[in-house]
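Final report, results section. Input specification for complex C-07:
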Amino acid sequence: MAGLIFLIPIALGMGLVGLVAFLWAARSGQFDDPDGAANRILVDEDRPLPDNGEQGLEK
Amino acid sequence: MSLLDTNMVAGCPSGLAPSEAPSLSDPSAFVRRVDGQNRLSLTVRGAKCGACINRIESAVKTLPGMESARLNLSTGDLEVGWRGSLKAPIIVAAVAELGYGVSPRDQDQGASDEQREERSLLIALGVAGFAMANIMLLSVSIWAGVGEMGETTRTMLHGISGVIALPAIIFSGRVFFVSAWNVLKRGHANMDVPISLALVIAFCVSVSETLRGGADAYFDASVMLLFFLLIGRFLDARVRRKAHASARDLAAMAHRTVMRLGPNGKASSVRASEISPGDQILLAPGERAVVDIQIDRGISDIDESLVTGESLARRAIPGMHLLAGTVNLSQPLTGTALAAASDSLLADIARMLEAGEQRRSTYRRIADRAVSLYVPFVHTSALLAFIGWLLAGMGVNEALLIGVSTLIITCPCALALAAPVTQVVAAGRLFRSGTFLKSGDALERIAQCDYIIFDKTGTLTLGTPKLSGQISPEALQAAAELARASRHPLSRAIVEAAGAGPVASDAREFAGLGLEGIVHGAPARLGSAEWVSVDSGQSDRSSLWFSQAGKTPVHFQFQDHVLNDVATTIGRLQKAGYGVEIVSGDRSETVESVAQTLKVDHWSAAASPRDKVNRLEELQAQGHKVLMVGDGLNDAGALALAHASLAPGGAMDVSQSASDAIYSGGLAALPRLISVAKQARSVMIENFAFAAAYNVIAVPIAITGHATPLVAAVAMSASSILVSLNALRLNAMRETL
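Structure output:
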């Protein structure tokens, strides 16, 4: 029974962390463009290597 | 798909939306300065997939001085920010060149209010979800510990539940409380009144039970109720916001800019709303008139296809009146504004739209009708249970508990989800096939229609002329070199047939006559019969002649082609029992030939916007429910008044905002839309029937006092899940039409 004393606060605390994260995400506009967010992962950001590209990927 | 491939296509590479011809206007009047940065909000039409984001953002970001460019795919808003001397028209041109429709946008108060409302519903939903999950954690231990758990532990767990439930109900329940209070103040009642009542009573009874050390507290049930109801409310708000986002396009139209000539002859870009009658206006080639004007100087060709449905370009001379929505094709025109933007044809049509919206809002949704039957039933049964048990000699506390459990268990969770979930699933399915629904109840109205009226130009036919007949490749290539210098629809048709190639040197266009230039070293002309000095016996605006020194003139003929799948689609609709009619603003020969090809018996030509509306009212008076399909400005009034309406993706923005749904990828979308609408309707009715059946079982259980919090929780969530699963069936259904 004594376990409840700390188990319930831990459960509530974890839920609260999730809630705070959700509130932050909602307020910072991350749910404003669900279609765009779903599509953005498909956007290919590769660009042609610049001319002095040897220093980069070769080593 | 590589970047290179997608760059070859105009518009959305997924083919979900048609590309749009660039319409030029100077957005400089909409640039805002914030912290030394220039900002501009644009509305982009036709962007539907990830590749669009990439193309648009990277095209804009490569411009000098550009600091940020972000496209919101859900709403089509493009926000750009830059420093330096970059001019706004260059940004717009960069997007328009890719084949997207783009227009500047005001920082819109209404839209951001709606977005804020949706966001606050989402947050309320999150809070309710958090509270529900945590209270459920405690409730499950109470239910599992029946018979073993001591009263002290149980009361403590109830107490913690209450402490979580109180802020959640106050915070998330606000949505219902505020709305219920506002309605009650005016002496009415709506759905939110019983919901608020159920929440408050359930909470208060649970508090008193907890204080008494009783076994049954309804904290979990009341928060669960809140959570499910908020899901329905949130989905509804999202569907509604999408609908309003498209209505904003109409406002965006009035937000176009106009080149106004100052007293010193200097042109400056101003907002259309600042134009007053008598202002001097410059209409550049390719630009669309935003106000009605009278031409003072300049001769040009004009395209009125979106205003009147006339498929051929017309010659414009000084003294003529141009209606708003007309596109200037070849030469700059100077004119006097006849009316302010708010008095022009566009604004008239906007008023017609408003009248239509009002009439349409009298439509009662299935959900509303179900609720109005449901709410009195729920309340009477809860009240009767309470009074009945009191009379049977039970204590006030126990009787109240039974009344509350009846109220909670019958509360309209499944009912609140039945319609929105179905609408969201159906809209999602249509979206994937390229049809965009603008409101939830559009589906219900489309399912009811039994008569379909089509506009011709742009709906059944391509709307732009196509080369017909046999032309030798050499003559075609030679004519195309001249045609590439022109915006005239017939020239564009030649270019389309010939493909990319060189432009004739020294090509000049003479409005209403034709083009002249040097092709392969010899002077050549392309234009009307009189322009190339051929005696054809009649003046025919639907053909062109090409002549070059020393060669016989070549005759080019054009036809507005009926779109590919239209004949089969109309056949399918007629077979399914729909009345089909064509009402067009075009000349009667063209309409008749189209009607004959499509085997449509009822047609009328040369119809003005007013005629279209009259025909519609006539049919509605006969008891038909009419589905209107059209794309032009001249259809907008009819689109708004029809029982339900549809516009193709290439339609004028006014028509798009007047209609219930926008389709792309040809008319084959229409049978699909109708069959999905009918399926959605039957799924919705199944859902309501299920909610009713659920109550037939749940109410006796509750009234007899067998509804414990556990039973209430299971019944409520099971019914909500079943209703949602039933709606998901829509995705797997086959087309029936």
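Chain B touches chain A at residues 3, 49-51, 53-54, 71-75, 115, 119, 122-123, 126-127, 130, 133-134, 137-138, 153, 160, 164 (CB under 8 Å). The first strand of chain B starts at residue 32 and ends at 34. This concludes the modelling results for the funded period.
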